[in-house]
Amino acid sequence: MIATLFILAPSPYTLQDDYKLYGVEVSECGKTHGMYKSYKIVHDESNIMFSNIKKNVEYINRYRQIAKVMTKHGLGYFVEQMGLSELLPRFRRDELTKKKRKQSLAVTYRLVLEELGPTFIKLGQILSTRPDIISKEYVEEFSKLQDQVNPIPYEEIEKVIVQELKSPVDEVFSKIDTDAISSASIGQVHRAVLQSGEVVALKVQKPNIRRTIEIDIEIMRTLARRMSGLVAQRSPYEPEEIVDEFAKTIRKELDYMLESAHARKFYHIFEDDDEVRIPRIYTSITTRRLLAMEYIDGVNIKELLKEGYTQEQRKKVARVGAQAMLKMIFDHGFFHGDPHHSNVFVTKNDVVAFLDFGIIGRLSKRSKEHLTDLLIAIVRKDASQVTSTVVAMSETKDVDTQELKWDIDDLLERYYGKPLDEINIGNYIQDLMTVVKRYGIKVPSNYALLGKTLLMIEGIGRQLDPGFNTVEHTRPYVERMVRERMSPLSTIRDWYERLSESSKMVVDIPSKLDRVMADIAKGDFKVGIERSTMNEMTHSFEKTVNRLSFSIVIAGMVLASSMLFMANLGPELYGLPIFGWVGFMISFMLGIWLIGAIIRGGKL
Fold it and tell me: Could you tell me the residue range of the domain that residue 80 belongs to?
């Protein structure tokens, strides 16, 4: 079936260039609409290549929008490097080099991310938790990105509710407020009343947002591939790897069923706590795009900082909030990853409530032990212990630990002589991440998220209570973990776990050997050698060859001396030829020297 698609494009721009890559027939209609000219695209809908024509239009338009926004903010050189300049109308291409930046590069990129919309704002927010990937200047600037947008009309939201519940709204709700309580890029929240009379907060995903995000992720991935050659070799992170991690994170945020599972877990952790509240989830009316939770009547931290609240109330909230977060981290290894001002509420009874569980962090038992070691080393200002802990926490094998230790020692000097109540643990961890970044050390994302979370706890705590100190609240947890690790029961448990791991490794050896032998048989077996170790390997090989050659020479001399003994030639000593004695003595001394060299080299 032949179909025709009419679209508009800027009149100085030749749309044919966009589509000739796809073999699509494009012709001008001859009509202009202001600055735009209409084009006709003819394609065969039965052909799989052309069945995605709408998708191609969406991608090209989005690429063009990205190029325009970056050019507008003085990043034309980046547009050229990424090969996007051809997507701009000819009259705009002159701006690529003429347009100059008015702010710092960090501010410029923040403005670009804001203008490009939800996916790019989320990318900036996630990067703001990764000082091991971007510099401190960018971390601080991207932390200002606000995921608050104008709500879309309720009529569009109602369609999503009906689609998800598969029933009319009035069958489930007696009332839904048409004005949104809050609105972010992915979804917005409405207050609603169930038929049972219970008041709920209804979080509804905006229509088509998933499609928008998927297009942006694919574009990011393409741009990341083009950027790979521009990234400094010292960075342990490939641009594509960063995009893949971001895609994984934002796709989790798009799944409200996953968020409801997180909320239920936190609910069980704090259900017996009178000072902390987690909203109850209504699972029967929760789907991937619809989340119904208990409505929390209170004020957020921003409101609490305004007049009308006593200093005692603020101090209590700082204490309760910090202890709740530290309980999540140290007791459960499962923590709220985004406890900013708008996600922490305070009820009329001064109960602290946590909201929005889209981003969470996890810490294994081993990770908590590393964290404890790190905090102890920071408090003791022990650079060696901080260095060894950081290396143990990282995913990087080849690290110059001596150089790293010196830099960490310099970092600790900034805190030398300061009392504990003046040490900002969050800032220290952020500074430590900056040092780690210089050495190309790859840190697991949950550690980076933890550092950002501790920084948030400390920042909000000190806004509420100028005398707030994270170390003071952290100390009981660290001391308890140290006691537990030193206990005989814990030692036995650790040995049992390691023995179990070792036994599993031994059991797996035959199957792994089978796979290796199968690869060798197929000719697929490869050995990777890093360049950094080549010189060392070459030197070692040369020494081995030299020793082997030397051994052969000695053996030859022994054999020749034996033949001289038997020949009875020349002067004699003790009835044997002197030349034979000399040969044996030289061979003996050379043999002793060779054995000594091997022993000194630790190879015997």
Answer: 2-102
